[in-house]
Amino acid sequence: MVWVPLQNSGTDNIALPLGARENMFLRWFIYWDQNLERMRDLVLGSLQAVRECDVTALGTVTCLLALFVWYCYHVGSEQPRSYATVNAMMQGTAVNANGLPNGYTHCQSAHCIRCTHNEGRNQKLYHNLQEYAKHYSWSGMGRIHKGIREQGRYLNNRPSIQKPEVFFLPDLPTAPFFSREAQKHDAELLERNYQVILSEFEAIYKAFSNCNLPQGWKVNSTPRGEWFTFYLVNQGGCLPSNCRKCPRTYRLLSSLRTFIGNNVFGNACFSVLSPDTLITEHYGPTNVRIRCHLGLKVPSNCELVVGGEPQCWAEGRCLLFDDSFLHTAYHKGKCM
């Protein structure tokens, strides 16, 4: 409300009689007294409503807030219970789909998350996944915790075409192969640096001319042929002696946006198949990652089959796939 002083349209002031001014002020005080009375009633009514009605709502909100804080603490600090299902699963998949031992799953390393079955390895798996999920959301941590706790139920309902050996996280995109567009930045970065990576690979591969298995290289048992790997990062851990031999390639890994090198499922290596080599059908450890193969030297008659779908590598190009699907690879060509 705005009080406007009375004014004359001309230059003369209007003088009100004394009685008229007294009546005007009296009416003004009566009007404001009524307004103040209404305001007081409104404030008292509001306070009464808070005391009588909103106390229940306030208590409900407080309980919900307390439950949320408890849930965050529970997810962030509770240890996995027994993980018997994970142990049984890892023990039960120590052979490939054809029942033949596969070198990739039988490395016998005391630090391998796939090949050991003690509680410590399961704790390591849980904590690595939890630390990784913290970068995204509280709900992500909850999904990781629930996924590990209920692995038996998830994997028992999975079709045989996709059964990761260590950990399955539900509700992720399911496809044997992925388009380069799914990881466009990283795929293009690797392809732009193809010659750099190739030159460092050729430098370390020359050592095979002096001995059967040079330092840093590992051989994987296969039913036919030879399969060699040279790891820069293995299960989230950097191999310093190998990385020093390929410094530019290792620096490229740190430039990738989606490389999970800080996780037990993070790997980066050079992989070589000699002619007439067959890698028998097997599953990878998890579906939470996409594997990326950059073709360095690809002769004819080489193929990767994932989930029953065959694909060929191409030199200087990235091939993205989910190795939690049943997959195999072979090289039936000649040396280059």
From TrEMBL:
Instruction: Give the protein family.
Output: Belongs to the aspartyl/asparaginyl beta-hydroxylase family.
Q: Where is the Aspartyl/asparaginy/proline hydroxylase domain?
A: 191-333
Q: Has UniProt tagged this entry with the keyword Oxidoreductase?
A: yes
Entry-linked SUPFAM superfamilies: Clavaminate synthase-like
Give membrane topology per the record: Single-pass type II membrane protein
| Signal peptide positions on this chain | none
Q: GO molecular function terms here?
A: dioxygenase activity
Keyword terms, alphabetized? Dioxygenase, Membrane, Oxidoreductase, Signal-anchor, Transmembrane, Transmembrane helix
Gene Ontology cellular-component terms listed: membrane
Keyword Transmembrane helix recorded: yes
Compartments it resides in: Membrane
What is this protein's name?
Aspartate beta-hydroxylase domain-containing protein 2
Q: Chief subcellular site?
A: membrane
Taxonomically, the superkingdom here is Eukaryota
